[in-house]
Write a structure and sequence with these properties.
Layout (H helix, E strand, L loop, with lengths): L11 H16 L25 E9 L3 H8 L5 H14 L4 E11 L4 H18 L2 E9 L9 E12 L14 E6 L8 H7 L6 E2 L2 E2 H5 L7 H9 L6 E4 L4 H5 L8 E5 L8 H10 L3 H5 L6 E7 L1 H10 L4 E8 L4 E3 L1
Parallel strand pairs: 2-3, 9-12
Antiparallel strand pairs: 1-4, 2-4, 5-10, 5-11, 6-7, 8-10, 9-11
Helix pairs in contact: 1-4, 3-4
Length: 330
């Protein structure tokens, strides 16, 4: 009897089923700039309407948050996380996401699960006007356990060269405005999983996994609402792994320090519970999790209050001062 690819653990038919199940939601994200559909070796996207465009790209994954999703059999949110982690990064430079590609790897492909994951990506793309123009599904028996999936993505956006936000215009006296997170987003889950052992336990009236799996907030609407209001953002930081402590200094030039008042930050109750239950020091919490701040924007003092009136639950949490400490939490 001859050997087959299916006997080795790779079911091509399940892959074809996956494509069939996702093609409509993927096509719904396309616009007039997408020049071809699924099935080509490469995806075509034409640029139009820009004078001096600069492409900005970012790539990321979901990390071990996937473990909670897989164990809870909730597959329709992690795709949003995957998109958001990439798109929010390029937003920090003022770039509008244009198109997205995804990578899904597993030990044994289940087309229903794959379709739910990609469906989440497609929903996030649709919400932000981003085209999902390609991707790869890799079935790799022996590399992943049956039932395990990994998800990553790649986002490309565009910004006019003279509108790039890179932190070089940040100056002493400018204010730091926090845009709220939707929860843990997609960072710190190795520590979360060490402390919270039972994802089915009740927390604030519902299973804990529901709180942990709330997807990463998409900040595109907030950032462009601020921009459309005529407010110049001199710096934007996406608060991902490393929290405020590591991410805010990334946008500061030498000689500048961000001074942040912790009392102005509304820390989510689930993060407070994690710190209490795990006996986690405050510095460790602020250096690992977003602590309720998903993104910060730096603006002139005169514009800070305008943002708080534009963006729900945003708040002024600090200012830029002289110094080389990078960040001071007080």
């Amino acid at each position: 009897m001859s050997n087959t690819y299916k006997q080795a653990g790779v079911d091509k038919e399940e892959g074809y089923q996956t494509v069939s199940k996702i093609k409509d939601v993927v096509a719904a994200t396309h616009n007039e700039n997408v020049l071809n559909g699924l099935g080509s070796f490469g995806a075509f996207y034409q640029l139009s309407g820009y004078k001096n465009p600069v492409l900005v790209s970012g790539t990321d994954g979901v990390g071990t948050k996937l473990r909670i999703a897989l164990d809870s059999k909730i597959y329709n949110t992690v795709g949003i996380d995957c998109f958001a982690m990439c798109a929010n990064d390029i937003l920090c430079h003022g770039a509008k996401p244009l198109f997205f590609l995804d990578y899904l790897a597993c030990g044994k492909l289940d087309s229903d699960i794959a379709a739910e994951i990609v469906g989440g990506i497609a929903r996030a793309c649709k919400e932000t006007g981003t085209a999902l123009i390609g991707g790869e599904t890799a079935e790799m028996p022996g590399m992943y356990q049956i039932g395990d999936y990994d998800v990553a993505g790649f986002c490309v956006g565009v910004v006019e060269r003279d509108e790039i936000i890179d932190g070089t215009k940040i100056q002493v006296g400018q204010k730091i405005v926090a845009l709220p997170s939707s929860g843990f987003h997609s960072n710190g889950f190795s520590l979360i999983r060490k402390i919270f052992r039972d994802f089915n336990e009740e927390f604030e009236g519902k299973p804990l996994y529901e709180t942990l799996l709330v997807p990463t907030k998409l900040y595109q609407n907030d950032i462009f609402k601020i921009k459309d209001a005529g407010i110049e953002m001199t710096g934007i930081a996406h608060i991902t792994g490393g929290g405020l402590i590591e991410n805010v200094p990334r946008i500061l030039s030498q000689g500048l320090t961000a001074v942040i008042d912790k009392s102005r930050i509304n820390v989510p109750t689930v993060m407070q519970e994690l710190a209490k239950r795990g006996n986690i020091a405050e510095d460790e919490m602020f250096g690992t999790f977003n602590m309720g701040v998903g993104m910060v924007v730096i603006v002139e003092e005169k514009d800070a209050e305008k943002i708080t009136s534009l963006i729900d639950n945003s708040s002024i949490i600090g200012e830029i001062t002289e110094g080389n400490q990078g960040i001071i939490l007080k």
